[in-house]
Each structure stands twice: as structure tokens, then as C-alpha cells.
Amino acid sequence: MHVVLAGGGTAGHIEPALALADALRRQDPTVGITALGTERGLETRLVPERGYELGLIPAVPLPRKPTPELITVPGRLRGTIKAAEQILERTKADCIVGFGGYVALPGYLAAKRLGVPIIVHEANARPGLANKIGSRYAKFVAVSTPDSKLRDARYVGIPLRRTIATLDRAAVRAEARAAFGLDPNLPTLLVSGGSQGARRLNEVIQAAVPSFQRAGIQVLHAVGPKNELPQVDNMPGMPPYVPVPYVDRMDLAYAAADMMLCRAGAMTVAELSAVGLPAAYVPLPIGNGEQRLNAQPVVNAGGGLLVDDAQLSPEWVQGNVLPVLSDPHRLYEMSRAAAEFGRRDADELLVGMVYEAIASRRG
Q: Which CATH architecture has domain 165-341?
């Protein structure tokens, strides 16, 4: 059996694809896996690091919304579709699983030409152009939110790294807090704007830290590798404020925390829900508004708070986040609500869809 994955470009597309690849290998160590990618995407590093074959195709960026530029897409895609066809033929692909982005669309169109079964996974609440098109030809469509707009979609969640999907926060909390130099017993806020950080979140939390410390709450703050680390003057006896450039073990950061202040990317929302960590979500104010839609379901379920970027301020954090961390019962209820909404088994459910699609073709 050989499965081709199409999810290059950003970590939000690549990580779910690699989580599926790992799940396929656990099910059958002999399965062949090839990931489509381009020379300019993160996949050139991430895919080989995880031990999977990378098949390169030319990059053809897609417009995010229907525009007159769409008319030129088929012509520009011709060469990259042919390259994707050659990879599908060379690997004798039994199916293709696409995760959206500009790598996925040529993969879908090549698979359609060759009669290779297509599975689409959409991580965002608002589907992108590639997956809208791919879903028309797909055997199966999997989505991360229960109210997706894609037709005949199955709600499975987002395939997660095993370190996250299997995380028992309570069991490793002491180890995690020790790893970051945190007090083992104090309520803990984790702050991160994603892998690159978010200046707005950084500025707000730095202004709010003293009020958290006075309330007996410690803060672990991933500022982003390109942002300047703030000067820290932790007074003796005060809860620690620990700024770090980057966290490469998010499982430990989640285990150390009782609540998080963060953006609302689809992967972040899925991971926090899966591990039962409540959050104050601050959707990115650019794009097509999908980050607010990503966070809304878990917030509606009681597993988080939601605030517009323009409304985020030290006063908002002090008035909304600090009271949650100071109330063990409310913190417990929000954690429970997040965990009930979260899905830890999306990778296994997607493996089942792969086998269904292949069986339908062979049958």
C-alpha cells in the first residue's frame, strides 16, 4: 500500500499530514508514504526529519478568495499537475490525502485524472480554495469542526502529534514545571503567539505580569525567536515570570500550565482542546476571519474565552484571565469542557478513512 500526502507550505498543513503518516506506519510498518511539497515550504525540512519521502512539485500560489486571478490558475497549474501525476504513477499510489494549501490542489487534480481515490482533510472552520475544489472529487471529507460547511463531511478533529494526543497533563505537571524553573504548586499561565510569537500578546502580558505575580500566579511566556526577551526582575518570594525565546516541547508547556493566552490557529485550538487546557483566544486580526471561527465552538462549549485583538489590553487580561486562574473550581470546569470538546483520535479515524477509500477502489 502506498499513500501520498499533500499538505505542504505551512506547519498547519504539514503537522496533521505527518501525524497521519505516523499513524499509518503504526498500523502497518510496510506502508509506503510520500509527501508532496515544494522547494520553498517548511516540508523540505520537516518531512525528511520525520523519515518520510518528499516528492517536489513546482509552487503555484493560489488566491485566498475568488478573484479575477482565478482565471489564470488552470494554465499556471498545468506543469505542477503533471509533476504530481508523475509522482502518483511512480509510487503506484493507492490514494491521496490532502490537507489544503497550494500543494494540495495539483495533487487533487492529478489524482482525479488518474482515478486515484482522494481524501480531503480541512483543519479550519472556513475551508480554503484547494479543499473546496478537492471536496467535489473526494471519496471522503474529514473536518475539524462539527459545523463545517463542506458537504458530506465527517467530523474527526485534527491529527495530532503523539506527544500531544497521549499527554496526561496531571501526571507530568511536576516534571514540566521543574523543566521551566516554575514553582510546582502555583497556578500557571502560558502565553504564546505561535512559533514566531506575537508582538501584541507580548506587550500586553509584559504589562500585566506584576498584577499576576501579586495575585500568586506565575507566567511562562514564549516570546518568539525573533522578538527581544524582556528584562526580568523576579523579586524574592514573588511567583516567577519565565520568558523564553521558543518552546520546542509544547507537551511540557501544556502540562505546566493551567490556562493559556494565545492566537486561535486551528492546530492550537485542537491541541489545547485535546489536552483539556482552557485558553483565552485572541484571533489574528488579518485573513478571512477563520481564527475566530476556529475558537468559537470550544468557547461556546465553555472551554475558553474569546477576545478581539483590538480589545486585548492589560486591563482585559487582569479582568478576565486572572479571575479564572484564581478560581480552582472555574478552572476545573473550563478544563473539563475543553477536554470534552477535544478529539485525540483524529489520526486513527483518518487511517480508517484511508483504508475505506482504498477498499472501495479495489472492490
A: 3-Layer(aba) Sandwich (3.40)
